[in-house]
């Protein structure tokens, strides 16, 4: 029983990795369950045994990507983070353009009302802003050197992170994402 469950989890992980690749190549709307299934040597029906809908697979892909960013901690995995560790995350992302491209493409697609990842991204951004507020509060207290509160500064930090990713994806030779983020931290007044 435990061996069968382990094989099933291993297969699910393989499907998620394949889905990430297919989505990176074709975008969510262009990715089909059949293409993902073929990549892992399954029929579409076999894939549906593990993920009953394309939306369920998409959410699993997004959750997996977030686990990579938080070191496997998932929700709340950034507890104890500092601004310099956010800079390390930017450096880590610069080493995996395919993952960043997939995330960015899905984020862009998710702004439409009917997109299946819209709720995921809405919840994720609320969580990331709250975590960033905590990081800023731990670093600066109730006011940053420029006078902003952590609540007011957190959306700006998140916007810089995501905006840099888009610029870097479009022109990686012109935008040194880790260096620019470190410059931004200096603007905040990192101690």
Backbone CA Rg: 18 Å
Helix content: over 70%
Strand content: under 5%
- Following the backbone from N to C, one meets helices and strands in this order, namely HHHHHHHHH
Query: Termini distance?
Result: 53 Å
Helix and strand content put the structural class at mainly alpha
Main sheet?
A: none
Quaternary state of the chains: single chain
Total strand segments: 0
Q: Averaging pLDDT over every residue, what do you get?
A: 86
Our count of helices gives 9
Spans of at least 5 consecutive residues with low confidence: 72-77
Query: What general outline do the C-alpha atoms trace?
Result: elongated
Structure description:
The protein is mainly alpha-helical and 191 residues long. The chain contains nine helices and no strands. It is elongated and about 55 Å long. The model is unreliable at 72-77 (pLDDT under 50).
